[in-house]
């Protein structure tokens, strides 16, 4: 258990009546329960945070190395990597249903149902990945031209080269996401971390050799980065699939495959994931529009935004890690018919995430130029990024709370509520606020990140309302 959590014990303990609507509890009993919950959250969240960071570190390494290679190469990742990540986020949305169904089954001590749900979801992921990868790899320039028509030709060409290669690894990426969700729902966050560590080691070595042409390898620039990323992604998906089908797997996938009865659990996964898919589609669609607005600000702003995204990555990935822990514990405890413990786990995870991200926000405000300068030595890019980082600092505690609660609600199966949150934040707040501040008032990249911050503030408030209403604890999965 991490040190310095006494404040969290006191804060959550004061909400005892809210967590136990069916009867009062003593302060001492509640404090013991909170300490237990902190330990449970941290046991799952630590490896989950590291896993999420390593998944994104592949792209961060590409940004750092390509930033040293050329400004156009770095700016091209604003298009290609964002598109790949958006596709990944939208088309693996059914990992929310996987986590909810597998976690509920684990909580109810029904491992065969959990295995059948995981098996069906992984098969669905592999097929979906192929359906997306083939056309995207064949015509990346058409996709990029339709989405980002105002971008310079040199940047667009680099983005197309990257996209054509990395898209081939999408089937492996989709399987990795579902396999990781199944393992996390079972209480295993270490195996996904191990696979991500292997993938990152491979990506770092290959990217350095192929981008700059070291050690006798050809100098491939963006193409070299794409080859390294695709290879690392394929490795991670293959490792997790191999572990789940192994004899020592937490889930009996071999028995589930032999039995062949996996359609009903898959239907449950897809039913819960439907609203999550729409939510991700809306969010990522609005984010692409968000990125397109940045495209109007020029290459320097695009490159600076890539640096900002990389700097902030440690924050939103940490929040995601705590969210994974919250979702897994909520699903398991609701499956075991312990709703008060589910509430406590979600609140504790949110509090721990807020503490960490607030600390990061302070660091952003104290050393903005140093942080942005780690990705580029271009003075114009550093100036633009450092100014916007102050707005990013303000957003951190709100982003932490909203991210964890949203993921906890998904773990409960309350994906419709999360969809409503995303619609309100993305369409009614982020996009109009960003356009008004960045384009209309000409605040540039600072306006972009102010719009994002306002979105997180609104979503955090709405998440608090949903949490304390408590109807999510009665969601049927």
The count of strands amounts to 0
Strand content: under 5%
What is the number of independent domains? 1
Which structural class matches the secondary elements?
Answer: mainly alpha
**SSE order:** HHHHHHHHHHHHHHHHHHH
Which value, in Å, is the CA radius of gyration? 22 Å
- Share in helix: over 70%
Give the termini separation.
31 Å
Question: Which outline best applies?
Answer: globular
- What would the average pLDDT be, to the nearest integer? 86
The DSSP helix count reads 19
- The residue ranges in which pLDDT falls below 50 over 5 or more consecutive positions are none
The oligomeric state of the chains shown is single chain
The profile of the biggest β sheet is:
none
Describe the protein in words.
By secondary structure, the chain is an all-alpha fold. The chain has one domain (6-474). Helices cover 83% and strands 0% of the residues. It has helices at 6-13, 16-19, 27-69, 71-91, 95-107, 111-138, 140-147, 153-166, 170-185, 190-212, 222-244, 253-259, 263-295, 299-335, 339-366, 368-373, 379-412, 415-440, 445-469. Helix 4 (71-91) runs parallel beside helix 14 (299-335) and helix 6 packs antiparallel against helix 9. The longest helix is centred in the first third of the chain and has 43 residues, at 27-69. The model has no long low-confidence stretch (mean pLDDT 86).
């Amino acid at each position: 258990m991490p040190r310095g959590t006494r404040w969290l014990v006191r804060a959550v303990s004061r909400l005892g009546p809210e967590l136990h609507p069916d009867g009062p509890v003593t302060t001492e009993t509640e404090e013991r329960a909170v300490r237990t919950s902190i330990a449970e959250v941290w046991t799952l969240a630590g490896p989950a945070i590291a896993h999420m960071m390593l998944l994104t570190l592949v792209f961060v390494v590409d940004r750092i190395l390509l930033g040293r290679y050329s400004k156009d190469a770095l700016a091209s990742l604003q298009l290609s990597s964002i598109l790949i990540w958006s596709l990944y986020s939208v088309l693996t949305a059914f990992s929310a249903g996987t986590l909810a169904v597998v976690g509920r089954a684990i909580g109810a001590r029904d491992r065969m149902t959990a295995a059948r749900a995981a098996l069906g979801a992984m098969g669905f992921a592999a097929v979906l990945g192929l359906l997306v990868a083939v056309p995207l790899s064949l015509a990346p320039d058409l996709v990029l031209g339709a989405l980002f028509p105002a971008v310079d030709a040199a940047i667009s060409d680099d983005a197309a080269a990257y996209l054509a290669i990395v898209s081939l690894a999408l089937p492996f990426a989709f399987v990795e996401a579902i396999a990781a969700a199944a393992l996390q729902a079972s209480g295993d966050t270490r195996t996904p971390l191990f696979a991500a560590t292997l993938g990152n080691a491979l990506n770092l070595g290959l990217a350095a050799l192929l981008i700059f042409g070291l050690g006798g390898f050809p100098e491939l620039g963006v193409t070299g980065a794409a080859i390294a990323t695709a290879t690392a992604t394929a490795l991670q998906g293959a490792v997790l699939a191999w572990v789940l089908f192994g004899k020592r797997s937490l889930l009996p996938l071999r028995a589930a495959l032999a039995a062949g009865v996996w359609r009903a659990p898959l239907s449950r996964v897809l039913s819960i994931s439907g609203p999550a898919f729409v939510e991700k589609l809306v969010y990522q669609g609005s984010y692409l529009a968000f990125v397109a607005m940045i495209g109007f600000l020029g290459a320097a702003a695009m490159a600076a935004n890539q640096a900002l995204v990389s700097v902030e990555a440690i924050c939103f990935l940490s929040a995601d890690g705590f969210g994974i822990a919250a979702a897994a514990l909520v699903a398991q405890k609701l499956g075991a018919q312990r709703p008060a413990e589910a509430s406590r786990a979600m609140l504790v995870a949110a509090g721990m995430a807020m503490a960490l991200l607030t600390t990061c926000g302070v660091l952003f405000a104290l050393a903005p130029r140093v942080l942005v300068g780690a990705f580029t030595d271009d003075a114009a890019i550093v100036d633009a990024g450092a100014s916007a980082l102050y707005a990013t600092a303000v957003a951190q505690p709100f982003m932490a709370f909203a991210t964890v609660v949203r993921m906890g609600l998904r773990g409960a199966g309350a994906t419709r509520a999360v969809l409503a949150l995303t619609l309100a934040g993305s369409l009614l707040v982020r996009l109009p606020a960003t356009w008004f501040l960045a384009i209309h008032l000409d605040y540039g990249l600072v306006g972009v990140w102010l719009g994002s911050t306002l979105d997180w503030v609104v979503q955090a408030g709405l998440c608090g309302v949903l949490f304390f209403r408590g109807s999510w604890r009665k969601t049927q999965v």
